[in-house]
Amino acid sequence: MRPVLQIMVGRLLVLLILLPMMAFAAPSSSNPDESIGEQSAVLKIANRPIFEFRTSLLGESPAVRAARASEVINDVLESSGSLTVRVESIQNRYMILIGERRAFIVAPQDVNPLHHERVEQAAKEAADNLRQVIAEDMELHDLRFMLKAGGYSLIATLLFYLFVRAINYLRSKSLKILPSLMHRHTKTLKVGDTQVLDVNQLYPLVTRLGATLRWALFLLLSYEWLSFVLSQFPYTRPWGESLNTYFLEVASYILLGIVSAVPGLGIAVAIYFMARWVSSFLQRLLRRMAASGKTENWLNTETLTTSQRLTSISIWLFALAMAYPYLPGAGTEAFKGLSVLLGLMVSLGASSVIGQAASGLILTYSRTLRPGEYVRIGDHEGTVTEMGMFTTRIRTGLGEVLSIPNAMITNTVTKNYSRTVHGDGYVVDTTVTIGYDTPWRQVEAMLLEAARRTEGILGTPVPQVFQTALTDFYPEYRLVAQAIPSQPRPRAALLSALHANIQDVFNENGVQIMSPHYVNDPLQAKLVANTDWNSSLAEKP
Questions:
Q1: What is the pLDDT of residues 71-102, one digit of tens each?
Q2: Could you tell me the fold of the domain covering 422-518+534-541?
Q3: What secondary structure does DSSP assign to 33-98, as a single string?
Q4: CB neighbours (10 Å) of residue 454?
Q5: Which of 238, 326, 390, 479, CA to CA, is 20 to 30 A from 114?
């Protein structure tokens, strides 16, 4: 009974002493201006925060209260007295006791409204922190515990060393076998005959990525090793716990971000597979429609590829627009800025591109041109070699390759020599002007004879001669014939041979190719005599 009576008497004396002091201080603490300009003070024992004082109490500032509480707690820890922590209520305040000694008082003004709702909750949390400090102080003076903590730290250090050595070993091994692996696998990645990846450029990139991964693993292992070692010892345990807390906060933030993005990613993936299936289905449908030959004129084997591309692009653009709101970060300012930038780029530079693409589609579906046809576009003449979305390429008879914008073709009269023939081939024509003194029947016969002598001009259909004009001084004759399919350069050679044969036939028949704008007829014909032929330069006709 005696200890119990001593405890009760001690509590009564403490209450008798504190009540007048609190009554005296009550008016001042109720003044809202008392704490203005005061700076809070954190009570720390053995590097462990216990409580944060935010207001003055009993005439003591937060710093004085923290210092006084620290002195009391250290004295109790150094003594051999009772280390039991209790919380007792005094009016609207709570007193934290260690044994029979008052450690500090928690006032309503000390409560942080962001963390605690009531004074009692803050006092209980402070008491729990104080109990943890006492337990860690006992561990600090426990030799067995310290040896155990040192052993765990030593094992962690050894494992850290082994992991670092393993990472370095794997890196050295991977650098030795990486060139052969890259050479073996990159050779299989080809588009046609072109290798997609260059080993000389890929190897430095892979090595840099490997070095970055190595340093990331090293930093992660160092972080975990340091937090584990610090958590083993009572004095440094708060530092280790703060490191673990920070790591867990970052990991939880990333994990929550991933988890929150999963539903949206699921919908986006579903849209992707749906668009892929629809695109594949329409590709097969278009192929069947083009092969049947029963569709409209816009769809055939020539326009099939373009139609498939347009269909696929339309489907994927629609799918992208549908999946965009479900992508992670779609509502962030970064995504909004990127959308504005892309829209600005399209509005500034895509007008001409869209016009060229529209012209390419017009040429494709109107079938004005086809690869292999001989055409004349404005002042340019040659064989169509390639029809693209934006430009069309033709090869002239001199071997020149011309890239003509599609918009220019749609705005220019195009003459297709390959469309005016029967069957395969193309039209060859040339114009000759002969004076009225030469009978037109003779001129037609000589032109047809020159056509028959020219290799490459077909006999069926029969070449024709047209009188296209009757001018003041001469009629204009136009020879039109059909030639067999050939490359652009042989066509130029064919025209050259035709012109040579026309000269030979006209010279053989005593007809001069002359269409002068003259006043009087010449006294003598402008013919080359047989005796004037130079056999070393040309053969005699």
A1: 888 888 888 666 888 888 888 888 888 888 88
A2: Alpha-Beta Plaits (3.30.70)
A3: TTTTT---EEEEETTEEEEEE-S-BTTB-HHHHHHHHHHHHHHHHHSSS---EEEEEETTEEEEEE
A4: 21
A5: 238
Contact 332, 311 (CB under 8 A): no
- Strand partners for 394: 384, 402
By three-state DSSP, how is residue 377 classified? strand
- Identify the pLDDT of residue 157: 93
* HSE (side-chain half, CA atoms, 13 Å) at 500: 13
- For residue 370, give the DSSP letter: -
Q: Write out the CATH class of domain 346-419.
A: mainly beta
User: pTM of the prediction?
Assistant: 0.45
Using the structure block, give the residue that is written with the tokens 């970064």: 334
- Candidates 213, 229, 78; CA nearest to 141 is 78
What is the separation, in whole angstroms, between the first and last Cα of the chain? 152
CA distance 96 to 135: 17
Q: What are phi and psi of 267, to 5 degrees?
A: -65, -40
Phi and psi torsions of 7, nearest 5° = -65, -45
Sequence-distant (6+) residues with CB within 8 A of 451 are 457, 463, 479, 481, 498, 501
Q: Which residues contact 381 (CB under 8 A, 6 or more apart)?
A: 374, 375, 394, 396, 397
| Pairwise CA distance, residues 382 & 416, whole Å | 10
pLDDT tens, position by position, 249-273: 777 777 877 787 788 888 888 998 9
Structure confidence by residue, pLDDT tens digits, 373-391: 778 787 787 788 877 777 8
How does DSSP classify residue 109? G
Q: Provide the percentage of residues in the chain whose pLDDT is more than 90.
A: 7
Residue 14: CB partners within 8 Å, gap ≥ 6? Answer: 102
Residues 505-533 have pLDDT tens digits of 988 888 877 665 655 556 666 555 555 55
Identify the three-state secondary structure at position 496.
helix
Count of beta carbons in the 10 Å neighbourhood of residue 506: 23
If we measure between CA atoms, which residue out of 125, 71, 63 comes closest to residue 101?
Answer: 71
